[in-house]
Amino acid sequence: MQGLRHGLLSDGGVRLELTPSAASPLAIDVAESAETRIQRLIAENPVIIFSRPSCCMCHVMKRLLSTVGVHPTVIELDDDEIAALSPRPAPDLYIGAAPVGGLESLVALHLSNNLVPKLVQVGALKNHHLLIN
């Protein structure tokens, strides 16, 4: 069984790590495949980034979302789990269980003024943050 550890990051995000623990109330069945775990996490979190350690694009993605008021769930993957994201490598962003893609796709959403409405739609951002003309 595994337990969940978390800590605050300097960019305002939260780092989640799975650590061995049989007594954790957040225990996960280790028999769950990486693909199944990834699909479950996508379904359970309105905004989720699959990241890898020391990835500068992942850092920029987290900062952009933080700037608009969203603190996504960030899952740092090891090499075996990154392969389960195929065909897209990390960073890989999902909003409302829909694949957005990497940093370039996120920036395109932001620059086209479609990011904030999408975040409001999935409940990751409150409606009062929108300026309606």
UniProtKB/TrEMBL annotation:
Entry's localization field: Cytoplasm
Residues covered by the Glutaredoxin domain: 47-82
Protein keywords: Cytoplasm, Redox-active center
Name of one Pfam family that matches: Glutaredoxin
Gene Ontology, cellular component aspect: cytoplasm
Domain of life: Eukaryota
Cross-referenced SUPFAM superfamilies: Thioredoxin-like
Broad class of where this protein is predominantly found: cytoplasm
Family: Belongs to the glutaredoxin family. CC-type subfamily.
NCBIfam families in alphabetical order: GlrX-like_plant
Annotated protein name in UniProt: Glutaredoxin domain-containing protein
Organism: Salvia splendens (Scarlet sage)
